[in-house]
Amino acid sequence: MNQETSGIQMPDRWAPKFFTVWIGQAFSLVGSSLVQFALVWWLTRETGSATVLATATLIALLPQIFLGPFAGTLIDRWNRKTVMIVADSVIAIATLVLIYIFIIGRQNIWAIFTILLIRSAGSTFQYPAMEASTSLMVPKKHLARIAGLNQTLGGVINIISPPLGALMITIFPTQAVLSVDVITAAIAITTLILISIPQSAQIMAQSNGTMEKTSFKQDMRAGFQYLVAWPGLLAVAILAMLINFLLTPASSLLPLMVTKEYAGGAPQLGLLDSIFGVGVIIGGLVLSAWGGFKKRILTCMLGIVGIGLGILIFGVLPARFFYPALTGIFLLGFMQVFANGPLNAILQGTVDPSMQGRVLSLIGAGATAMSPISLLIAGPVADTFGIRTWYLIGGIACILAALVALFIPAVMTIESNHQKTIIEGLTPGDISLVQPQEPKS
Asked: What is the value of pTM for the model shown?
């Protein structure tokens, strides 16, 4: 079921409304990035402990892993606009509390850990709600371009946030830097209040009495059934988990690769981060302009192959070839866009809008759960067989996974095979029978 089988009229002029919300969320992302930088810097300066930093990272992952599946169900049951407003507000309030703690001089590690946990919990609701709302605000044919634009935004933020955060930390006290997040959150909330966001068919049908209200347990079970009943979707979810399993250690081991294998230092690591960000930005701009292949899953597989090649290039070149090896990092950033953007567009364009909160959250939770697992495995592997070993394993596995997926019919036809399998796999009460219309471009 998709947007073309709709029954709810959507606004003709979609772009001004969508981009008003998008710009507000972009401001919020910048503020969140600055807060993240400020908190990591404070923990680094005050403790100098790798264990503390690792714990902070783990704390930020926990809500996404354990709260994600429940959050997705609630997002599909509630008004998504309200969910985003409340989530942004909770994050802003948590930051205000932290600002007060810094003002009175009571800042400590556990206070920051608690705020990080609350902020991550808010993001666990906010991000899937925005992603699920996008498919109700943007015409299906433009979803890949919007995904490319989102990737570009992420690349820009990754490049500007560290130097901007470092400059602000140098000039202003920590609480002043944190206040930027409150201001940007207020901008995001204001844009949400001003713009109407279409609701899913399930919410509309239940509110007007044409569909019987279901329980939280029923909705959560339906989300799992929906994912499992669609072989192509389940295969793509497993592929996303595999890629995250392979890439997380490759990212965390980069500082050791630079220092131990390429005999570099902080400048080389900084250059590497910048090259990656430039790759993401250029890739996002290309995807935004091009939109990818008509069969978007082909663009996704091309991106995964490119990611594998990038990892291999950086992992196999000899120590004296550090700067040529940066082409691998550029390729990694560039092709990451073509893997992630079309995948998001596929999910937004084919998954029942009433199910998107649950599906996106389930896939996100599964992929995020791979991070701590892979890090536990990659550490001993790198210590025993050498750091480059993981790059060889990760690069080859990415390429093979994409090539194998090309020969799996359920994956390659994911954009057209969903309606029959979903109808056969679920009872009528498990899915919404009325779909929103395709917004007119």
From this structure: 0.76
